[in-house]
Amino acid sequence: MRKIYILDTNVLIHDPKAMLNFKGNEVVVPIFVIEEVDKLKKQPVTGPQARIASRTIDSFRQIGCLAKGVHLDNDIFFRVELRNDPSLLPPSLKRDVVDNRILSTTLGIQKENSDKKVVLVSKDINMRIKGDALGVHVEDYETDMVDYSELYDGSLPVEVPEDIYKKYVKTGRLKLEEAGLESPPANTFIRLKNGEKEAHGKFNANKKRIERLVFGDANVWGVRAKNDEQKFAVDLLMDENIKVVTLVGKAGTGKTLLAVAAGLEQVVERRLYKKLLIARPIMPMGKDIGYLPGSEKDKLKPWMQPIHDNIDFLSENKEEKAGDRVVAGLESMGLLKIEALTYIRGRSIPAGFIIIDEAQNLTPLEIKTIVTRAGENTKIIFTGDPQQIDNPYLDANTNGLTYMAEKLKGEEISGHITLTKGERSALAEIAAKLL
């Protein structure tokens, strides 16, 4: 039976073409959602998605009148709902609140279509709670959802006989069948175990064999990996054949520090890339950055400070001059650029080593947009913690970082590792676990 799906504003911001993903059903966008999308077009964070959503809906006008409804591909019937009956809301809910207007529109459609299942789709938890309380069937937008609890961690432990273990240690390579494996995802790190002994390798999908790590123990801009997970991360970061890397881990696991170190090493020392570009999404806590004093650079400084802190640490570790002077020097030479992600959206990503930090605050579409804009000789690193999300409409299962790690699993030009072991102080480690 055909269903009627009513889309909340945040769904269109999350996925501007969401209306095309309800095959065989009717999709309704309330006029209040159109108005909200219009307001969001000028915002730096939501603007790009809002504009795509507007253009997508505008393209449907060529088919017919949106108020009457138009037929789209995949047997989808789309329309914009103009009607709204505030009397359907309980007196306790304010009539001039946009969310409540969307709810009253939904109740009206539900009343007119008692023979059909009417579903309000929203990524706003409170909207779903209010809808449920009003007797509306509500759902999250699940098209690009990935189960974070089942996320591939990038490594695989394998127990092997002593003769096989010795052979690998001696030669540095091993056929899959010798390790008792069928076909793990490309670039999976294999933990070969024999009793108390353990050796590490990476699956080369092209040659169909396990090979010794090339860069795991490398000195990267004065830094060496402190644990096995960090060794795996370094190997991915330094491998020129891998173009996209996702590093997932809680604060203190070293994911961003290692990414920055690898970027500096390959841009400044080895000259493998033209530039190191480090970007973070702006997710203000409290007031928007427009309320902050000072120039644009001053306003952005609190959000970019963690990157500067990492460079400070690396500079001290390498016995270089002060971190700020290192940054200024590299920027003046055109080798380093640190900026808010807002400023690189909508333009081609320059050839270079690109780090997108705090990527868990991006939607799958935003991640896809970044990757598809990358040019030749570009390597992109996404780092973040899906359990620490500031975007109110994303969670561990729906954010772009989790989505990217899962969707690129098995591709020869991509690699992923989940870091679980913290390398900060004992106090910081306990706080990350318990507080």
TrEMBL record:
SUPFAM superfamilies (UniProt xref): P-loop containing nucleoside triphosphate hydrolases, PIN domain-like
Protein name: PIN domain-containing protein
GO cellular component labels: cytosol
Domain PIN span(s) in chain numbering: 3-129
GO molecular function terms noted in the UniProt entry: ATP binding
Family: In the N-terminal section; belongs to the PINc/VapC protein family.
Keywords: ATP-binding, Nucleotide-binding
Lineage: Bacteria, Fusobacteriati, Fusobacteriota, Fusobacteriia, Fusobacteriales
